[in-house]
Amino acid sequence: MLMKKIIIFVFFLFLTGTYLPGKAAAGQSSEAAQADTGSLNLPKNPFTRIVRDSADEMLSFDTSLLTFASEDGQYRVTLAAAIHIGDTGYYQELNRRFQEYDAVLYEMVGDNDPRPSSERESGGFIGWVQRLSAVAMKLDFQIGSINYHAENFVHADMTTAEFAAGMKKRGDGFVVWFLRAMGYEMVQPVESFSKELEFNGDLLKLIFLPNRSRTLRRMSVENLAELDSTIIPTEGKHGSTLITDRNDKALQILRRELDSGKSNLAIFYGAAHLPDFAKKLEKDFGMKPEKIEWLPCWKLD
Question: Rounded CA gap, 63 and 274, in Å?
Answer without folding.
Answer: 11
